[in-house]
Design brief:
mainly alpha, about 45 residues
Length: about 45
C-alpha cells in the first residue's frame, strides 16, 4: 500500500513538472517570434 502511494505521488510530481515545462517552452517560442517580428519591421 505504501509503495503504491509513493509511486502515485512521484507520478503526479513528474507530470506536473512536464506540464509546467511545456508552458515555459511555449512562452520562449512566443518571445522568439516577437523578436523576429521586430527585426522584420526594422529591416523594412
Amino acid at each position: 500500500m505504501l509503495k503504491k502511494s509513493i509511486v502515485a505521488i512521484f507520478s503526479v510530481l513528474v507530470l506536473s513538472s512536464l506540464l509546467s515545462a511545456c508552458n515555459t517552452t511555449r512562452g520562449v517560442g512566443k518571445d522568439v517570434e516577437a523578436g523576429g517580428k521586430a527585426i522584420q519591421r526594422t529591416a523594412q
